[in-house]
Amino acid sequence: MKIKKTFLSAIICLIIAGCSKDVGIGDYDSAEVGKIKKVIPGVVISMRPVRLHNKNAEAVTANDATDDSNTSRSHGFEYVIKLNSGNIISVVQAENIQLKNRQHILVIYGHNTRVVPDNGSEDF
Which one of 25, 29, 44, 83 has the minimum C-beta count within 10 Å? Predict the structure, then answer.
């Protein structure tokens, strides 16, 4: 019975992990192909490492005392950004793309908002 419970918990964790927001900047859902996204330039004014928690996975694994709760945690970065409009926003993403303070970036709004380096938008 214990083996079935552990196996079921592992399957549920894998399913939930597949639905998590830990989407890399280079990973897109196939449903996003052909969708227009709003892109706004800005500058990084602050960044810090953060721990990401998948609360759904934690709730499932909390029922199994032998499971390691670290499977539902990962690391990411919070970027505080001053948009060219003057507004200030914060975006958390799972990957470190090695942005620096005062670096020009682009914020791509969509199903998952992403921050990417601005490699020449001022040229257009």
Answer: 29
Whichever domain contains 76, its CATH number is 2.40.50.100
- Contact status, residue 81 vs residue 88, Cβ threshold 8 Å: yes
Domain region containing 94: 2-123
Which secondary-structure segment (H or E) carries 76?
strand 73-83
- Which amino acid belongs to residue 119? N
The pTM for the full model equals: 0.62
Burial of 39 (0-12, 13-18, 19+ CB in 10 A): middle
In whole angstroms, how far apart are CA 44 and each of 4, 106, 112, 117?
A: 48, 10, 19, 10
